[in-house]
UniProtKB/TrEMBL annotation:
Biological classification of the source: Bacteria, Bacillati, Actinomycetota, Actinomycetes, Mycobacteriales
GO terms of biological process kind: nucleotide-sugar metabolic process
Protein name (Swiss-Prot/TrEMBL): dTDP-glucose 4,6-dehydratase
The keyword Lyase is assigned to this record: yes
Gene Ontology MF terms: dTDP-glucose 4,6-dehydratase activity
NAD(P)-binding domain residues: 4-294
Matching NCBIfam families: dTDP_gluc_dehyt
Catalytic reactions of this protein: dTDP-alpha-D-glucose = dTDP-4-dehydro-6-deoxy-alpha-D-glucose + H2O
Presence of keyword Lyase: yes
Amino acid sequence: MRLLVTGGAGFIGANFVKQTIADRPGVTVTVLDALTYAGNRASLEPLADRIDFVHGDIADLDLVDELVSGVDAVVHFAAESHNDNSLAEPWPFVQTNIVGTYSLLQAVRRHDVRYHHVSTDEVYGDLGPGDRAFTERTPYNPSSPYSSTKAASDLLVRAWTRSFGVRATLSNCSNNYGPYQHVEKFIPRQITNLIDGVRPRLYGAGHQVRDWIHVDDHNRAVWDILERGRIGQTYLIGADGELDNKSVVRMILEAFDRDPDDFDHVTDRPGHDQRYAIDATLLRTELGWTPRYGDFRAGLAATVQWYRDNESWWRPYKAITERAYVAAGEQTLGGASA
Ligand code: NAD
Ligand code: DAU
């Protein structure tokens, strides 16, 4: 199989490419990535002679058409992915997440190429504490510029499938953790803060709940769907990993042998989604997928170790990321008891 992976220099895409090269010798991989602030060529460095890398934009219709004409399938990860950035400046989210997806859909339509669309549980909005987890039938109700543009891209895929017969599947996954995640995101930000001797920073009271899944479990599900998923079907991906943010910060501090209350509360995110939770019954029963990383604390410890061992990978991004948080108005509200 000849595979085009968009966003392969980003967090999940790079892990997907690594897993694919390791497990599937019959697959050839071309990565298309614009190398935005979130793309890191170093993530693919160990595979440089095993893949083709194209530096380009998914919204470039001619480039995308040419690349898609030479493959059997596309797995589309490329996106603007960070909620905080979407609140500061929404336009790149509209351009990449909506127009970029349009560009890919037109190309797979023209060349009748199999397409898998990687999306997020955030398209469903958020849940209250006692609400049932999201399923494939939950109505869309996105909250942020990020999640609304991902929702729009999902709807384009559904329309292109129904109206033009595009052979597409979709997946909506919960929060990923693992190696190669940008230091702007919650878990790597706190780990790298602690390596630098800075206290973790918890938005608001930290009662928001996220449903954590290891990135390798997400990517194995993507392969299951690509190979055996039903055309036109959406599959939710999640590993029953619900935890509130405060508990995660405390676990990270414990992994550093630090007092679990040694963190700061900072300004909350506007419109902050309260809770995400995934019911992955369809994926488990129809495709037989199960997560391999059942123990979040162990997965987190391995992730902490990865950031300790790979400082040269994240160091160039750390100071600029923290400056952006300050510029966006983040303020310290006080310590754990605040
Ligand atoms: P990321 O921000 O780490 O990586 C995004 C990649 O896309 C980067 O390499 C970037 O350079 C590239 N890119 C951005 N704009 C581009 C453009 N116009 N053309 C080509 N490349 C471009 O993101 P991630 O966390 O790896 O997320 C990957 C996908 O998974 C996204 O679609 C995201 O919505 C989805 N997702 C993420 C999570 C999560 O927890 N991170 C969970 C569920 C779904
Ligand atoms: O649910 C899937 C989504 O998960 C993906 O679609 C997104 O691409 C991905 O970024 C992630 O979105 P979140 O907004 O949930 O992730 P983030 O890492 O930004 O934040 C996780 C939680 O931690 C959230 O409730 C906000 C909080 N937070 C975040 C940061 C960066 C903090 O408390 N402190 C922080 O410093």
